[in-house]
């Protein structure tokens, strides 16, 4: 009985507290980027399970890799990890991830539906087509951000506005 703590006590982090720290904030979750990334994670996981249960299990690595990539980007954007490490070209990495994911999902989904019989193979193909659409929407959104990023010469928006205000004060 000594293991049970009051809900407001802060003696040790509870499992729920750790889980809440890992989940994206409500503000990020309701943004367009947040919803796209959550959709990518969910669809990739569902597609992974469908492929694992089907005769097309040879393609199980595609949704697994895309699930892990989308999960990493969800963590990076929701925790503002991408803002702390400005040396990486985050928009370019995200763009390439989304483009390759949508192309590979499209090809694998066609193969799963046309070459394999069975409900789970067909379901994997259908969820793969839906994932293709979600990744395509994300790479379109990232393309617009990448174009703005490259127009600024690779500077973040904060750096560009800071330089403009420094020039105005002279």
From TrEMBL:
Question: What keywords are assigned to this protein?
Answer: Membrane, Transmembrane, Transmembrane helix
What stretches pass through the bilayer? 60-77, 89-113, 125-143
* Assigned GO CC terms: membrane
Q: List the Pfam families.
A: MARVEL
**Locations listed in the record:** Membrane
InterPro entries documented for this protein:
Marvel (IPR008253), MARVEL-CKLF_proteins (IPR050578)
Every copy of the MARVEL domain together lies at 28-147
The topology of this chain with respect to the membrane is: Multi-pass membrane protein
Q: What is its main location?
A: membrane
Q: Which PANTHER family match?
A: CKLF-LIKE MARVEL TRANSMEMBRANE DOMAIN-CONTAINING PROTEIN 3, MARVEL-CONTAINING POTENTIAL LIPID RAFT-ASSOCIATED PROTEIN
Q: What is this protein called?
A: MARVEL domain-containing protein
Q: Which organism is it from?
A: Periophthalmus magnuspinnatus
């Amino acid at each position: 009985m000594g293991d049970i703590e009051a809900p407001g006590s802060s003696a040790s982090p509870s499992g729920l507290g750790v889980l809440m720290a890992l989940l994206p904030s409500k503000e990020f979750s309701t943004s367009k980027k947040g919803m796209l990334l959550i959709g990518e994670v969910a669809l990739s996981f569902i597609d992974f399970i469908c492929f694992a249960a089907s005769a097309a299990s040879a393609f199980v690595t595609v949704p697994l890799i895309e699930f892990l990539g989308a999960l990493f980007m969800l963590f990076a954007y929701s925790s503002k990890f991408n803002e702390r490490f400005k040396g990486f070209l985050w928009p370019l990495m995200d763009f390439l991830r989304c483009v390759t994911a949508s192309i590979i999902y499209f090809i694998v989904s066609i193969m799963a539906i046309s070459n394999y019989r069975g409900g789970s193979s067909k379901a994997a193909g259908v969820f793969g087509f839906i994932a293709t659409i979600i990744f395509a929407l994300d790479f379109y959104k990232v393309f617009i951000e990448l174009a703005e990023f490259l127009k600024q010469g690779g500077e973040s928006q904060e750096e560009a506005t800071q330089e403009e205000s420094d020039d105005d004060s002279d």
